[in-house]
Each structure stands twice: as structure tokens, then as C-alpha cells.
Amino acid sequence: RVRAGNEGTVTMNKAWGPTSSGDATEMLARAAHLYYILGMTQADVAKRLNITRFKVHRMLVQARETGMVA
Questions:
Q1: CA 56 to CA 16: how far, in whole Å?
Q2: What percentage of the chain has pLDDT greater than the value 70?
Q3: Residue 19 neighbours by CB under 8 Å, 6+ apart
Q4: Is pTM, for the whole model, over 0.90?
């Protein structure tokens, strides 16, 4: 599940794109929603968000580590 309203600050490397914590949190939430809720593959999420599959994997790990995904 994806938790709504996670107030934790999320930082991302500039190579990941989003630089503000709000943008990064939104991107993590979008990736987690596509993967966990809609059941898309990491490759499909990567295509949808225009990022690499490796970046999707790292974002999903970060979403789990920050508690965004239960």
C-alpha cells in the first residue's frame, strides 16, 4: 500500500531528476502507485515516467525505506 500524506523529506540525486523534496516525494509516490497499485512492471513504470528501469528500482527501494510503502 502507498501511504498518503507522508511528510518525511526525501532527497534525490540530481541524476534522478526531481530536486525539491515535494517533487521527489511525488515522483516516488507515482512510481509506487504504478508498480504496487496498478501492477505495472518496473519496465512499464520506467517507460511511463521516462526514466530507466534501474532508477525505478532505486525509487521503489527508497519508497519502502522511507515508509511510503507499507
A1: 10
A2: 73
A3: 12
A4: no
